[in-house]
Every structure is written in C-alpha cells, then in structure tokens.
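retry 2 of 3: previous attempt timed out while embedding alpha-D-glucopyranose. Reduced batch size to 1 and resubmitted. Inputs unchanged:
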Amino acid sequence: MEARPALDDAALGRDAWSVLDANWTGLATHPSPGIYPHQWSWDSAFTALGMARRNPRRAREELRSLFRGQWRDGMLPHIVFHSADRSLYFPGPEVWRSLDHDDAPRGVATSGLTQPPLHAYALWWMWRNGSGLDRESLRGFVRRLWPALLAQHAHLARVRDLGGGGLAAIVHPWESGMDDSPAFDAPLAALPVVRRDYRRDPAGAESDHDRYIWLAAGYRDSGYAAGYLREEHPFAVEDPMFNGIWLASTWALAQLAPVIGRDPAPYEEDAARIRAALIERLWSPSSGAFLARDVRAGRSIPICTVGGFGPLLDPGLPMEYITAMVALLESPRFMGAAGYPVPSCEIRAPEFDRTRYWRGPTWVSANWLLWRGCCVHGMTGLADIIASSTLRLVRQAGFRECFDPFDGTGRGCRDFSCSAALALDLLTTSRSV
Ligand code: GLC
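retry 2 succeeded.
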C-alpha cells in the first residue's frame, strides 16, 4: 500500500473535484490524463452520475457531449475522439475510420464499437438527485436526450440480439468495459489465427491485443454491417453486466417517462422481456450465478467475475436470484477473502491475477454498481460495507484506475475520473441509503 495522508471527507471531496477539473476539456471529462485522452462512453455515464448532486450542469454537459458521437442508427460509440492526433491513443480515428461511414456523425470522429448502456440510468440518477431549483431545466434536458436514448436502446434490440433470445451481444471484449476479463478468454482463444500484418510485433507471438485490433478491423471492413455481425463476425458474447445495465437503464426509462408526460408501460414491458431473457439464458443453477454466454460456441462460460453481479441492479429481479448472488458475493470467492473488495474475478479461479485490470483488481465503478444493487434490494448493511471499503481505497491510495484487492495498492493510471466522481457520489449518497 502506498503511503498517503489520511483524508477526512471534506478533503477527499476537494481532491476528487481537483481531479475532475484537471480532466475537464471544456466539453467533457477525460478518463485520465495521458493514457485516455478522449471521451469514453461508460466512463462519461459514471462521471455524470457522480457529479449529479454537486454539479448538475456539468453532469448534463458530460452526457450531451458524448451523444454528439451517436450514429444515425442509434449506436452510441465507446470512444468519442477529441483530437485527431494519432500519437495520443491507439487505436485512434485512423483505425476506426468512422468518418467514412454514412451513419456516423460528421465533424466528430468515433470508434465503431459500443459500451454498456448506462446512460439512461445516469440520467435517472441525475433526476433523482438533482436539486429542486434546477428541476425544470433538468426536465428539459430529459426531454431533449429522450429520443437519443430510445435510439440507443432500439439499436441494441435490433442489431445486437445475435443469439435470438432477447439479449444484446457484445462483439468485442472492449464493449463490456471489462476489457481483459477472463470471461472473454475462451471466445478470444477460439478466434482464427490473426494475420501477421495485424500484429504489433509481426515476428513475435500473437497477443490478445493483436486479436482485439483484428476483431475491430474485421467489423470495420464489413462497413460496420449488421448482416456481417449476424452471419460472420467470430466474437459474440451475452454478458451479464452489459445486459444487467441495459435492463437497469430500461427500468430507468420507465421511471423517466412520466417526467416528460410519456407512458412508462412500453419500457416496463421491455424490462420484463430483458429480465426473462437474462434468467433464461445466463442464469446457471449449478453455479448459483449469472455467467456470460458464448453465442458462437453455443455455451456458457464457466467463470464467475464481477460482471456476473450486473443483474443485481434490477429492482424487479426475483428474490431467489438475489439471495444466491449475495451468497456468492459475500463468500471467500469474492468479498470474504479480500481485504479491499470487490475483486473483479473470483479469487479461486486459476485466471485470477491481483495485478491485472479486470482479472482480479477492485474497481470503484464496479463497486458502485454493486453498492447500488445492494441498496436497490434493501441490503443496507452490505451496501455500507462496499461503500466504506471503496472510500477507504481512494482515501489511502488515491483515485487510481483499480486496486489490489488484498492490500489496496493502487494499479493502472492515476487521477482516474470515474474513481473520483463515484467517490464523490458515495461520500454523499451512501450516508443516506
Ligand atoms: C479501460 C477500461 C474501460 C474504460 C476505459 C477508459 O479500457 O477497461 O472500462 O472504459 O479504460 O477508462
């Protein structure tokens, strides 16, 4: 654990704001300086919901600027580029070539993949926690963003139901937000051998990164075609976190509909359909957990990761699933054996690695989702444990990207916006669960 002076709540809040201010471009918040110099989709949703109480105007700006990148068919890209400078980030606009695609927006370059659709949920959080004074302008914002949110959800239902069972499939590990999660090892390993000209080191062994680029390039070269995804694209996974978030956001649409005089019923029906599909396709009775499903191989992927807890966010999930998920979460496979929970992969799995991103470390963003899931189901004791251990991490190690689940050492980049924004939210909201 790195030494850092213990901070009281007020000092921690000030530190969080200085990170968010330093990462603000005037239009949006970079995930972090250096490594992530553009706008990432679910990071912006997390950042917006973290700022909802204390700076609702900027929270709105965050979502507004992200949706500038939305494609005409509703696809909300996982990166909106803020600079064409190739040296800043790879793969940059020259790899995605969105500007060559008719559906992509003009004047702003984006990636061609998406990320978990947390945005309607973030908007609902803004509405739920926004200040009374600002109510009418927030209502106006809900009204303006509404068609874009519906288009985003309709796109998932129309283009991404690759398994035909009512869930949205991700077509690249990056779309999960949990890029190197062991849940994607098997479908990645099953890909055809990557041609040498896609390899970073053509003389060396093929790496996961080569497979990532090759997968993205195949989709791009199809013209980002829905038919290609259906018939040919070799990677398609139904991920419980992606779909749990989709379900929670669909529920959020039902909550927001009356705010702008709409009927909530269609969104309630959509939510019921996604819930039923999640249970039918991803629940594994023998593991007592939601598992990702490899659509191409036609089987579920037998490893429990933090992504499996995504459906906890759904207020309508029947109790038997909640009870089983909480037993797993509290067991030594996740929280029970980690001093700084929640590890991103179950500790006993051979793939668990306490040092590598989504293969073991604890993330503030995943913890926030789990904290929220516990609140939704009235498990305030567990919610408090998650909130306070998350705040202990950032208090001790700073707003790092992720953390060693055993000793709390910071990992990945520093001054990570999601960690700062969500700590701000936990500082306020967790006191009033
Ligand atoms: C990494 C993370 C992903 C995040 C991105 C930008 O790729 O895995 O969740 O969106 O960085 O912060």
